[in-house]
Amino acid sequence: MDNRLAELRKSRGWSQEQLADMLGVSRQTVISIEKGRFDPSLPLAFRLSDAFGLTIEDIFRP
């Protein structure tokens, strides 16, 4: 699954560690999602959506 996570995170000036703390996950999880090696669970996808104020579809592309 393709995603815009790194682009969106950087546009807000957030580090991977800051985003991980907001989401309650490890920095490694954020890295893995950004690189497309890990697809987030639905609850985590909703937390990402809330953090960025975007729909899940705006962050992740099939």
Automatic annotation (TrEMBL):
What are the alphabetically sorted keywords of the record? DNA-binding
Q: Which SUPFAM superfamilies match?
A: lambda repressor-like DNA-binding domains (SSF47413)
Residues in domain HTH cro/C1-type?
A: 5-59
InterPro entries to which the protein is assigned, alphabetical: Cro/C1-type_HTH, Lambda_DNA-bd_dom_sf
Pfam families linked = HTH_3
* One Gene Ontology MF term: DNA binding
Keyword Transport assigned: no
Q: Does this entry carry the keyword Lipid biosynthesis? A: no
Name recorded for this polypeptide? Transcriptional regulator
Classification lineage:
Bacteria, Bacillati, Actinomycetota, Actinomycetes, Bifidobacteriales
